[in-house]
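Kindly inspect this today.
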Amino acid sequence: MTPAAPDQPLAPRKLRPGQAHRIVFANEKGGTGKSTTAVHVAVALSYLGARVAAIDLDPRQRTMHRYIENRLATLEKRGLTLPTPACDVFRGQHTGDLLAMIRRLEASCDFLIIDNPGRDDAYARIAVENADTLVTPMNDSFVDFDLIGQVDAETFKVKKLSFFAELIWEARMKRSRMTIEQQRPEMDWIVVRNRTGHVEARNQARLHKALTEMAKRVGFRVTQGLSERVIYRELFPSGLTLLDKGHLGELGTSHLVARQELRSLVKALNLPDFARAQSELELA
């Protein structure tokens, strides 16, 4: 039986000592803003005072790790101290090596973020199975939607699940045992709609309808993500983010809107103790 999508986000839980909340960013299609979203969420949580560690599961491209490397280099060059998550690249040879790395890192952090590669492999599946919060960024197009569901060419109604949705279903079945044995929370799967600003209105409405139908069938939540903005690409060489105000020069209106998008996204993830942290330290 397929789990129904919750009408409301799962209730936030308290972080347990030695058991970080695991956030996995996964999408087998490239160009969806997965790593960019992962980096900005990691830095946002760091700004909120959380201890954040990250694992880059793509040792070849290592986009997230490169972003953090660039950030550390910029901070050293400018003599700055800004909240920055720790980030390691996974280079193990066995799935057991990844599980050991997860256990080692989460012992000293509040949030462990894993940036999956844009492909399906044994390590990516292990990461998904161990996700407390699973985030799947996608562009607002039926090319990206095809990753989770196939639609009728005439009516745009969902015909069947695609391979990635089936993979997540299998991961949830394995995780159900982990939830009891390791006292992990139920997996919260969130589909994040990135780059919605350049989508034609009729197509956007069709996508919204298809995602709503699929969410009920498969059991995920949908939230708005990061629009297509040049600033995200421009920030990569410096490793800075939209949250590093005062170090980005003069910001235009579009940049301020982008920062608000990020704040809204982090809030929508409904992470443990987020309401308390937000009241103590604003992201803006």
In short: Confidence is low (pLDDT under 50) at residues 1-7, 274-282. Residues 21-275 form a domain with the Rossmann fold fold (CATH 3.40.50.300).
